[in-house]
C-alpha cells in the first residue's frame, strides 16, 4: 500500500471515531450532579439498590464495550498519526514518517529539543509538540505561550 493510501485510511478511521464519539453519551459518576463533593469522573455504580447499576430508565448511561471506537483508530492522535515518544536523536531512526508522529518527552531540555526538531524536519517527521520558536538552531530557545 502506498503511503498516501495508508494516510487516507487512517484519516477516515479518525473521522469515523469522531462520528461514533459524538453519538456517545457523557458518562458521569452516579449522583455527581447532586453533590458538589462528588466528582464527575466515571466510577462504576456498585450499590445493591443503585438505580444506575440496575439501568433504570431516566438515569445516565453506563460505560459498556459497545461504545468503543473503531479498532484501527484506537491510540491514534486526532491528526491520524500514531504517537511515538522521543527522548533523543537516535529514537528518530525508529520512526516511520508516513504513519507515526513524534512527541518529544517532557524531560528533554531546550538544546536537545532543538537538535531533535532539526533532525525531524530533515527526515520529514511530524512533531506534535514542537514548543520552540525559530532561533532554536542557535541553541537559544524561548517557549511559546
Strand and helix map with partners:
Blueprint: H1 3-23, E1 82-86, E2 100-104, H2 110-123
Parallel strand pairs: 1-2
Shape: elongated
As a whole number of angstroms, the C-alpha radius of gyration is 21 Å
Could you report the average pLDDT, rounded to the nearest whole number?
A: 87
Strand content: 5-15%
Order of helices and strands: HEEH
Which regions contain 5 or more consecutive residues with pLDDT less than 50? none
| Strands side by side in the biggest sheet | 1-2
Helices, by number, come to 2
Largest sheet: 2 strands, parallel
Helix content: 10-25%
Characterization of the model:
The radius of gyration is 21 Å and the shape is elongated. It folds into 2 domains: 3-70, no CATH class; 82-138, no CATH class. It has 145 residues and is an alpha+beta fold. The protein contains 2 helices and 2 strands. The mean pLDDT is 87. It has a two-stranded parallel sheet. 13% of the residues are buried. The chain has helices at residues 3-23, 110-123; strands at residues 82-86, 100-104.
Q: What descriptive keywords fit this protein?
A:
145 residues; alpha+beta; two-stranded parallel ribbon
Amino acid at each position: 500500500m502506498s503511503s498516501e493510501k495508508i494516510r487516507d485510511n487512517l484519516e477516515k478511521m479518525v473521522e469515523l471515531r469522531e462520528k461514533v464519539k459524538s453519538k456517545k453519551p457523557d458518562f458521569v459518576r452516579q449522583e455527581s450532579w447532586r453533590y458538589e463533593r462528588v466528582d464527575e469522573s466515571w466510577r462504576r455504580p456498585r450499590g445493591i439498590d443503585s438505580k444506575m447499576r440496575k439501568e433504570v430508565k431516566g438515569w445516565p448511561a453506563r460505560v459498556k464495550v459497545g461504545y468503543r471506537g473503531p479498532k484501527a483508530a484506537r491510540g491514534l492522535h486526532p491528526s491520524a498519526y500514531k504517537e511515538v515518544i522521543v527522548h533523543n536523536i537516535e529514537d528518530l531512526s525508529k520512526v516511520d514518517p508516513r504513519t507515526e508522529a513524534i512527541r518529544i518527552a517532557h524531560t528533554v531540555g531546550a538544546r536537545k529539543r532543538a537538535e531533535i526538531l532539526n533532525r525531524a524536519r530533515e527526515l520529514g517527521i511530524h512533531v506534535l509538540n514542537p514548543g520552540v520558536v525559530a532561533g532554536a538552531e542557535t541553541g537559544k530557545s524561548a517557549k511559546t505561550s
